Amino acid sequence: MLASAWLMLSSLLYSLQLSSGSFPKPLTEEEERHYLTLSAQGDTAARNILVERNLRLVAHIMKNR
User: Fold this and answer.
1) In a 3-state reduction of DSSP, which class is residue 24?
2) What distance in Å separates the CA atoms of residue 39 and residue 23, rounded to the nearest whole number?
3) Which residues contact 48 (CB under 8 A, 6 or more apart)?
4) How far apart are CA 11 and CA 21, in angstroms?
5) pLDDT tens digits for the chain (65 residues)?
């Protein structure tokens, strides 16, 4: 299970880097608060924005494992 999640995340990171040349800019503190509130209310689009905009952190964590 963990290996499949790792593989999926790795391919997402790789395709994102290829398509845009870099990661999306991180959210501001205000934007993050806004999307966290919406996500907590069940807004899937807000959750996806949080995931996509925090990929830089995910890549950093994966690199250092």
Assistant:
1) coil
2) 21
3) none
4) 15
5) 566 666 666 666 665 554 555 778 889 999 999 999 999 999 999 999 998 888 888 777 777 87
Instruction: Determine if the pTM surpasses 0.70.
Output: no
What are the C-alpha distances in Å from 1 to residues 5, 22, 46, 50, 64?
Answer: 6, 28, 25, 23, 21
Token pair listed for 23: 């990661």
- 44 three-state secondary structure: helix
Query: CA nearest 27: which of 63, 52, 62?
Result: 52
